[in-house]
Every structure is written in structure tokens, then in C-alpha cells.
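call fold target=DUF732 domain-containing protein
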Amino acid sequence: MGRIIYGALIAAGLVLAPAAHADPMQDYLNELSGTVGFTVTPFTSMFLSNAGNAICVDLRAGVSPEDAAVRQLSYPGSTLALTRLMVTAAHKNLCPDA
């Protein structure tokens, strides 16, 4: 009898547990923060967020990943190697449909 009650409590907990909510932008920023060359702070996260959104707009419009990376070279301290990483992280986390 105890096992039945215990099993019912576990099942109820799973059903009533809040659904996990993924935050694609935070995943994008986390991926970049784990990469050499990126320092994600509240200040830089604004720029990186804007860049990620712009990359997704480009990719959805048919811009190649390489050209999307080149378009991000206007950000301070950016290099083609870093903007390529931004494109990869944005595509993976923000716009996998692109």
C-alpha cells in the first residue's frame, strides 16, 4: 500500500511541477561567455544581444553565415574569428530555424 501512495505522490509531483522554461538569449550569452575573447557583462550583453538578433535576421533573409559574420565586424573589438563564433552561437540558440 505504501508503494502505491509513494508512486502516486511522485506522479502527482511530476504532473504539477512547473514546466522548465528555456531562455534562448541567455543560452546564447552563456555560450559566448564560455568562449575565449568574450566578456559578457550587463553592458556587453546588450551589444551581444543586439548582434545575435541581427544575425538571425540576416540568416533568415538568406545571408550566408560568413557574410553575417562580416556584417558584425563593426562592433568594438570584434574580429572575424569572434563574429563567426557569434553567428554559430546565434544560429544554435536563437534561430535554429534559419
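return ok
The radius of gyration is 20 Å. DSSP finds five helices and no strands in the chain.
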